[in-house]
Amino acid sequence: MVAAPKPPAATPASGEQLLERIAADFIGLNTTYRVATGEVTRRVYLDSTASTLMMGAAYRTVASFLEHYANTHSLMHNSARLATGAYDWAHQRVLSFVGADPERYTCFFTGSGTTGGINRLARIYHQLRPDRDTVLVSIMEHHSNDLPHRKHIGRVIHLPVAMDQAGMGAVDLEALERLLVQEKGRINYVAVTGVSNVTGIINPVRAVARLAHEHDALVLVDGAQMVAHVPVQVSGHDDPLEDIDALVFSGHKTYVPGSPGVVVARKDHLAQVEPDEVGGGMVDRVFTESYTVTPHFPEREEAGTPNIPGAIGLAAALEVLDRVGMDYLLAEETKLIGYALQALEEIPDVTIYGTTDTGHCPRAASISFNVEGLPHSLVAGVLNDYHNIAVRNECFCAHPYVIEMIPDQAADYLAMTDDQLAAACLPKPGMVRASFGLYNNTADVDALAEALRDIIAKGAEYQALYKLGDDLEYHHQTFTFQPEEHFSIPDLVTEALSGDGP
Q1: What is the pLDDT of residue 10?
Q2: Is the pTM for the entire model greater than 0.70?
């Protein structure tokens, strides 16, 4: 009997096809709210730099894992064996995704997103190199990559950004080299963001690493805004000086809300310092008066029960991004950012912060702006209340950077307390930020541009509808969003217990 011919193998989907499929598969893309006009419209989500939406593939992967859920640290029953294996795979998936040699680097997960990881590393580097009391931190940094170094190392010098006719760009490499020479022997490490959470400007991380290592300084990269948008290569460069010592990022900014923070760091550094978080899982032996820390990574850095589902969800998202291809994703996002910059630049009275010449200074993820004559809080409020466009405003936990870009507005105001601002009837200083994920498209940009034109055309009319609240933000005087109409934990529990739920 002749065997039936095998069907032809399925043709692998192209990056374009995969991206189209994945971009449409996020939870929350079709969320609707009632706006101030009484209409119910679909939300346009432009707040991904704060936190991304949940990737459908990652969500379903976690749901499938929960059918088998058990704790790790055991191989003596089937579910524990499965959980341990999946959790181990999540670590290896991270190392592979960011191009970190698993022989030299480990990955471990932390709470509090990127903030928890950077605090851990600052304490580690202080103990590792106690004679070096200075950290060079770019002025672009989120507070999470600034304040931990002030607290745990002690002395922080802020690196300026490069300036040209087009505006403020990436970190100033000449200033970096000058400070490395001037402070020779005192610099413990250089801490720099891969991508600014305010402007989306991409820093030349490899050049920063090369300069730092030439002057015996370590390099810590805040990858919170970088990992989901830009290809990352921690190690394995032709020039070993371009390898970085530690990378930290957040799962909730990488399409998996609820997932942990991530640290990728050199094993030889970590091995010299006893972990400051101790407990179950990171020891080999415990006696009444002593204990022995395990030499194995990542166990020694992960005391206690980990966020196993979160780590698995994050690993699933990274697997998806890798299959699409980060080079392709960056190219597509560059097109969208360019489209958005052009659209906003064509609107009179809109000021964009940071250089907009992406050929000279590439960008990813974010664009921050203001509308002349209108407070940023009012603009953000109208975008939400009338156009159902979700953006963020104020200083984005990057006060020094904002002061650099809008000194006339921010320098004096940020020196005032909230009580002083309230007494003077002044809103908080800041900007409006629109930020993008791989689910956004040109239609979302068009919606934002159209809404801004409407706000500018009817600025006085909108201002009359809002007033400054006790929180120093502008609020609509008659329209109020009612969260409990859309989501109530007690109501959902009641529904589930009644048997009427899905």
Answers
A1: 46
A2: yes
